[in-house]
Amino acid sequence: MLKWSISVASIKNKYRKRWFAYFDLLGFSELVRNNPISKVLQVYEMVLKSVQQEHPDDETVGISQTWFSDTFILYTRGSSEHEFAKIEMASRLFFQRLILKEIPVRGALTVGPVYTNRSKNTYVGKGLIDAYEYGEDQNWLGFILTPSVFKHLSGSTIPINQRAFYRKIDASVLKKKSSSNVYAFTFDNGRINGKNPFLNHLNNMKIEVDDKIKIKYENTENFIEKHMRQRT
């Protein structure tokens, strides 16, 4: 019989409320199935380089990272507003880099209790489930902040609904979850010659996918164009 060997003190230390970001690469199974392993590893290497550009793989800097197959995770030690600022920027830049490299990805950042044990590669908790469910429910290529983030920061210096890079998500983007108090990165933190740089890369990626998948790209483009019009 398997014995439970984790001490209560260890659980209390590792199971805590923290910021937790979940990303998954879209179409990764098809990439593996239809391409030589050399191309798969080339794409994977680009993704790893992107996530490692933000922070070294060391808990002492405040943000930790892990990955397996097509899933990438960033998380913090706690749930302070200062830690949110760090993981929000790291997550947003990671997401942007992949889109600009034409690697399709979607992600969700939440806050909630998560047990983490890096040495055993163990991650369990309500926060992980929340990030996973909102991440998988998105019918586009986007990066969102879940309702838990909105609630947690409602009394902060800058609530989510006042932050420059985020706007309420369109209901059509989520397949099952409610869109209430879900905010998404607007893809609009800099233009080149008056044009949003993400649109061209999204269009390039859309050309390569099956017609049934193109709705994900169209939803993303519509969201970007909508918020570009609102800012002009």
Describe this structure in words.
The protein has one domain (12-231): Alpha-Beta Plaits (2-Layer Sandwich). Strands 1, 2, 3, 4, 5, 6, 7 and 8 form an eight-stranded mixed beta sheet that branches. A hairpin with a 2-residue loop joins strand 2 (63-68) and strand 3. The chain contains eight helices and eight strands, in the order αβααββαββαβαββαα. With 232 residues, the chain is of the alpha+beta class.
The rounded distance between the terminal residues' Cα atoms is: 65 Å
Shape: globular
SSE order, one letter for each helix or strand: HEHHEEHEEHEHEEHH
**Stretches with pLDDT under 50, minimum 5 residues:** none
Q: Count of DSSP E strands?
A: 8
Describe the largest sheet. Answer: 8 strands, mixed
Radius of gyration: 18 Å
Question: Per CATH, what is the topology?
Answer: Alpha-Beta Plaits
| Helix-strand makeup class | alpha+beta
Give the proportion of residues in helices.
40-55%
What's this model, at a glance?
This protein is α+β, with helices and mostly antiparallel strands and 232 residues long.
Layout of SSEs?
Blueprint: H1 8-14, E1 15-25, H2 28-34, H3 37-52, E2 63-68, E3 71-76, H4 81-100, E4 105-117, E5 122-124, H5 126-136, E6 143-145, H6 147-152, E7 166-168, E8 183-185, H7 197-207, H8 214-231
Parallel strand pairs: 4-6
Antiparallel strand pairs: 1-3, 1-4, 2-3, 4-5, 6-8, 7-8
Helix pairs in contact: 3-4, 7-8
